[in-house]
Amino acid sequence: MVRGALGRSSCPTLLSSLAKRGTPRLLHLKEAHTVDAGVDSEPITTDNALHPFDKMLQSNPTLYASDFNQLLTGLVRSKHYHDAIAVYGGFRMNGAVPDFSTLNILMNCCCSVGFTGYAFGILATTFKRGYLPNVITYSSLINGLCRAGEWEESEFVFARMKSEGVIPNVVTYSSLIRGLCQAGKLEDARALYVEMKEHGIHPNVVTYTSLIHGLCQAGESDGAKRVFCEMKSNAILPDLVTYNSMIDGLCKSGNLKEAKGMFCKLIVSRLIPDVITYTSFIHGLSVAGKWKEASACLEEMIKNDISPNVVTYSSLIHGLCQTGKLGEAKDVLLRMESRGVIPDTITYSSIIDGLCNAGNFKEAKGMLCKMIVSGIVPDLITYSSIIYGFFIRGKWEEGKSVLREMRNCGISPDVITYNSIILGLSKAGKQEEAKHIICEMKRDGIHCTVFTYCIMICYLLHIRNLKEAKDVLKEMMGQGICPDISTYNSMLHGMFRIGNVEDVKCIVSEIKSKGISLDVITYNTLIHGFCNIGYWEEAERIFCDMMEQGVRPNAVTYNVLISALIKDGKESKAYRLLDCMTDSGERPDMITYDTLLHAFGMADKNPAEDHVRITLACSAG
């Protein structure tokens, strides 16, 4: 596109037509630096935007580009880009000839409103009139392309700019870095950041903030912190956007303590938190299940005269629903509506999902009706929540009804919807129907995932149908889908239930041969399984392997082994393992306490002494 565009001619007719558009827009010329002191500073509409020229032309029919540029500059400074383009159209219709500055201003206007096609026409006109584009020309174009998401085009223009000997400035680099970060090309953005510093161009607040935002969006909060520190060490003061990016990134990575610290720095810097700052906090707290703190944050926000938006409320509602606080979630919904904030699809979907998880289908359907009556269109997530809720509780007829309703609305189920149905049918013992759904899924062109097959394998092992479970595993691998550790964990659990130890050992060998690392769940499944069938030595060997592989045992691991050692009459080993547990920083829980208390209480020992010892051990840490 760019390569061809560089050869385009100017289209003054198109630009002039913008002056004739029918929708009037208010325009304040108070800030505009017009040459005519008599221009009225009251608001006027775009339809009257040519009025200043009429006065200019009446007093002086020969309108110089320099005079006209002052008016355009004023419009641009007040961010009336559309109006500036419209006024330019009137300027050209009067036969006036733009100079290089006019074209640069127009380039900036077109790029600021996303008219990148027109911007290339202006670039062509620049060449045609014998002007050589400068850093301002190219920087405006690159900025516009990046804003429009045309990353490859912006990189091409950047390369062309350098090949013509035009040296990029901080604006050029900052625009490109921001664009690359938005495109997820962090490595390219980093390389450009290094390049600008090597050329002696110092990053500014926009450069640093763009890079910080990109790193935070990619989940690299540690990298963002390093850039933030570098920024401050170079005496560049972070602005509110910088702090908001850092707070959002830290909250999303679960570093709430550091996010609070960043909030304090923001206040110390005499910056005022805005709706984005608070919403990031509320979202982070809600995801972490700290709904009380999230609610307090909302109250503080309102107290500080900052109006929560739909994202703020939806974040809190989602967090409340996830923790089963449906009453509180509905209260927040009512409060949200009373403040004139209209719930969106995400808001309703969160509450519907919460109601379905609680088994309150009647109210969930009522909420769906309210949503539709309010003019909010349910999406795939909304319907999938209800379908999953019905199928998981064995209400497959109701689930099918919602599925039909969803299809009638023109919404096709995705793999998550199908997996919900398959899971529900499998749990209800309707294996044949589950197979039928898989066939339907394939007919719709939706490929089964690891989770789809895992559901089937789990159910078949649950009903002790090892042969068919193996067949499903073969089919899965035949489709080019490799089982993950979760699939293997499910298989190991099922095989232990059947008592098929040889197959367990084969599966473990297969996992290792594929280079898949065993996780704590795998080790716990193996230890628990071997202990249950009395293979104590094998369980201990697995535990040693776990430690050697650097997989940290959790309370479940220790509880299973301690219980097994006591049953095997190895109380001293159980004591040592208890000491090992507390030394590793793993806090014994009530299961540990009950296991030891029951075992030693039944043994021929001094119960009081053992009770004290167990209590002290369990309260450690």
TrEMBL record:
GO terms for cellular component: chloroplast. The lineage of its organism: Eukaryota, Viridiplantae, Streptophyta, Embryophyta, Tracheophyta. GO terms for biological process: chloroplast-nucleus signaling pathway; mitochondria-nucleus signaling pathway. Gene3D superfamilies: Tetratricopeptide repeat domain. PPR repeats lie at residues 134-168, 169-203, 204-238, 239-273, 274-308, 309-343, 344-378, 379-413, 414-448, 449-483, 484-518, 519-553, 554-588. NCBIfam families: PPR. This is Pentatricopeptide repeat-containing protein. PANTHER family: PENTATRICOPEPTIDE REPEAT-CONTAINING PROTEIN GUN1, CHLOROPLASTIC, PPR_LONG DOMAIN-CONTAINING PROTEIN. Coiled coil: none annotated. Belongs to the PPR family. P subfamily. Keywords: Repeat.
